[in-house]
Design goal:
Layout lengths: L6 H10 L1 H11 L7 H22 L16 E7 L3 E7 L5 H12 L10 E3 L3 E4 L31 E4 L11 E4 L6 H9 L4 H10 L11 E7 L1 H8 L15 E8 L1
Antiparallel strand pairs: 1-2, 1-8, 2-7, 3-4, 4-6, 5-6, 5-7
Helix pairs in contact: 1-2, 2-3, 5-6
């Protein structure tokens, strides 16, 4: 799964050029009868529309992804048996449905006693499935809910993300990014795709899994206990990345910071 983002693939098409990708498809369907002048006019119009579309949807600023929680802020304390407590803050304004889903499940005890059923060192640890094998779980609404992506949040080391089976298939499963790897080529591509400077710096300073941006909703960030995430990631696993000794989430408590 450790793939690099390709500029003409994920970065340009997904990050900054959905309209540009649509343009390529449209141009390929142009008839031979269309004159060179008409083609030029069409291309100029589409380029302008693509630029306007990108600017309309591009976010700027800083979500404070790596800032400590403020007093009174809602946080989660995840107690993992034989390991300790992982503390997480949330980004409710950017990913409200994912946050509501996780917090509600936690308050109702849904995650208590479940395991991190998939663990991959230098990548991530995944849990939240009652079946314990990655095939189960559901949202608080009893159905899948949509993705919530933002230029302001990136799947960096310590990020809490929704696991899914594809576009808009979020349920109860989640994962915490563990890798701290940084790729200079990715930084260059992020700059070319006009990511906010704060987002680029977050990745540059902390590392992460850039190939998962735009595929998995980022809705929280570990602010204390990353060493516990690292310890869990070192757990011995079978050929399916399942820990040989269950890594149990004893409870997740929602508290006021």
């Amino acid at each position: 799964m450790k793939k690099k983002i390709l500029i003409l693939g994920m970065v340009l098409c997904m990050f900054a050029g959905v309209a540009a990708c649509a343009k390529e498809d449209k141009v390929s369907k142009t008839t031979q009868e269309e004159t060179a002048e008409e083609k030029e006019t069409t291309e100029e119009k589409e380029a302008t529309e693509a630029e306007e579309s990108s600017e309309d949807t591009k976010e700027t600023g800083d979500a404070g992804q790596f800032l400590a929680p403020e007093t009174g802020e809602t946080v989660a304390e995840m107690t993992v048996k034989d390991h300790g407590i992982i503390k997480i803050r949330f980004f409710n304004e950017i990913a409200p449905k994912a946050v509501e889903n996780f917090i509600t499940h936690a308050k109702e005890g849904y995650y208590d006693g479940l395991t991190f059923h998939r663990v991959m060192n230098d990548f991530m640890i995944q849990g939240g499935d009652p079946s314990g094998n990655g095939t189960g779980g559901e949202s608080i609404w009893g159905k899948n809910f949509e993705d919530e992506f933002s230029y302001l949040l990136f799947p960096c080391r310590g990020s809490l993300c929704m696991a899914n089976a594809g576009e808009n298939t979020n349920g109860s499963q989640f994962f915490i990014v563990q890798t701290g790897a940084v790729d200079a080529d990715i930084i260059t591509q992020m700059e070319e795709a006009d990511f906010p400077e704060s987002t680029i710096q977050n990745y540059e300073n902390n590392g992460g899994t850039p190939w998962l941006w735009g595929k998995h909703t980022v809705f929280g960030q570990v602010f204390e206990g990353l060493e516990i995430v690292d310890a869990i990631a070192l757990t011995e696993t079978d050929s399916n990345d399942k820990p040989l000794t269950p890594v149990v989430i004893e409870k997740i408590e929602i508290k006021e910071y």
